[in-house]
Amino acid sequence: MLVKTYGSAVNGIHAATITIEVDVTAGIKFFLVGLPDNAVKESEQRIRASLQNNGYRIPGKKIIINMAPADIRKEGSAYDLPLAIGILAASGQMKSKKISDYIIMGELSLDGGLQHIKGALPIAVKAREEGFKGIILPKENAREAAIVSDLEVLGVDNIKQLIDFFNGDIEIEKTELDTRAEFYAALNNNIPDFSDVKGQENIKRALEIAAAGGHNVIMIGPPGAGKTMLAKRMSGILPPLSLQEALETTKIHSVSGNMTANDTLITSRPFRSPHHTISDVALVGGGTNPQPGEISLAHNGVLFLDELPEFKRTVLEVMRQPLEDRVVTISRAKSTVDYPASFMLISSMNPCPCGYYNHPEKDCMCPPGMVQKYLNKISGPLLDRIDLHVEVTPVSFTELSSKEKGESSNGIRKRVIDSRVIQERRYAEDKMVHANAQMSSKQLQKFCNLDKESSEMLKLAMEKLNLSARAYDRILKVSRTIADLSNSENIESQHIAEAIQYRSLDREGWAG
């Protein structure tokens, strides 16, 4: 008897429906075809044990299972459940009437229990697109999949429960969520506030500009000046995620297996802070079975690299292309996977190995040439892609001991949101551009016209600082953001002047 069940294969953050054809006929042996990996091939043993422990069995006949389309590689253990249900239905041990209405996914334990799977959200999205009545998956993934409306989501604890459901003996409670209500209820999560930071008003101003335009930042200063503290508060001044951004971000974390049983939508902008020992594959993604890296997990949020020169040179260089294209492409011999990587890069570094170069009170203990050598660990092309270079100075005792609270994140965030509204209107015709940092060369010419005074000032800076063409573009983008924060339609000379001062590391002789 031939029976078809349906599963799903996740590629990148998108899913493709897999048709599992099970044919049980006279003969012996178990055949599993359709480009399965080792984890799928090992499913026979898990299925055999789980069925036996629940009063069922794999029939002693010839079983041929084809997973179509055969040119898509089937990876992981989440196909256990659809394979097992197909075998039971094809051998007449359960009814098969309702099976074709559902996408079925789940990893089996030997006692028949179901384990958490990766990628439930993109699988549910695909199931709705293709007109399936619903999706059946482990109970731990049910809330995650229930984000998708107009789809029946059934979370099950074990295979016996599912067999009884298909036989008509029980009903499984549907998991239902009001996606918009969940989204808005979780929007105001607790995030560290800028009012906790004493002093550093010029740094707060630079981070406000970065948040308003989606710009990348590097902070250079001695230990204990507050670089990490400031960076950790960036998420609190960024605009709230839109529902579409939240769905896209949740997809990436779903594919990575970061969602727990109680998680639904990710409503806060991600803040990722990998250790400097991270590998290039862990940062950008990849592996034998490609997975998203830290830059994709930071999509629509912040990637914070503390002590930037301590990262391996190869790790930093692989970020150059994603910083420009806002997507990372993982290429393998048989497949290519694209992961979104639209993140804000916030980085920090000491000015030298001892940390006290240019310190107002402490002497630098580094030998001659060491400061430049330390700075050279970060390549020129990477520095070019960082819009704002900000020097962080130590906070004075007077400021530290002051009882006055600084401006809260909510006040800064309001100005950032107002600036982003201006940018959304400006780029309304281009769905790929949402902030000034994403402007194309054509848009730079259209929206960054300079008057004579501003043009002369920028020309002088280019010549004196020996800036690259990319640095020229970055200055224009930052000045456009500063103008938006000032609610100015045109870029004026003071906006250009402020943008130029944020190119500290381009200055000749900065490192002595």
List keywords for this structure.
512 residues; alpha/beta; Ribosomal Protein S5, domain 2; Rossmann fold; 2 domains; five-stranded parallel beta sheet; four-stranded mixed beta sheet; 22 helices; 18 strands; elongated
Shape descriptor reads elongated
- Helix count, per DSSP? 22
Which segments are poorly predicted (pLDDT under 50) over 5 or more consecutive residues? Answer: none
What name goes with the CATH superfamily of the largest domain?
Answer: P-loop containing nucleotide triphosphate hydrolases
Q: How many structural units, i.e. domains? A: 2
CATH topology of the largest domain: Rossmann fold
Strand content: 15-25%
How would you characterize the largest beta sheet? 5 strands, parallel
**What is the typical, i.e. mean, pLDDT?**
90
Please state the structural category: alpha/beta
The top level CATH class name of the largest domain: Alpha Beta
Question: In percent, how helical is the residue content?
Answer: 25-40%
Amino- and carboxy-terminal Cα gap: 80 Å
CATH arch. level architecture of the largest domain: 3-Layer(aba) Sandwich
Give the beta-strand count: 18
In angstroms, what is the radius of gyration?
Answer: 28 Å
Strand order of the largest sheet: 11-14-17-10-18
